[in-house]
Amino acid sequence: MSERASQAIHAWAQALSQPMDVERFGAAMGPNGQVRRHGWGTRIDSVVEILDGLETITAWAQGANRHSVFVIESLQAEDDGTHFRARYRVEILNFLNRGWWRFSLDELGRIAVLWHRADALQDPAMRVATVPED
Q: Can you give the pTM of this predicted structure?
């Protein structure tokens, strides 16, 4: 595993957890970095938004919930040797979800391109109530 990849993705998680501290984003991502965000529901496997450049990405992050805490749960290198995949967990007050980030690094060890795909959220209306048996 690349130490540079670990440092970059942990810096990214810290930046998202403290989005008002815009300098943190520069430690994680290069000035020409790109974030490719996946959609929700039927579009979860499709990129629906591309954010180009550190300035655009930092501005986008300012809209994040100030109580967000992102934690890296696992990190692995892909077989191609240039991409990495991190499993993350996000907690926002009483909300919890997970997802993955796939990313590559620039020549300085910062994130060059990052794909952001959250896990599908379970619709509360679709949950089946269970009744305990006597």
A: 0.83
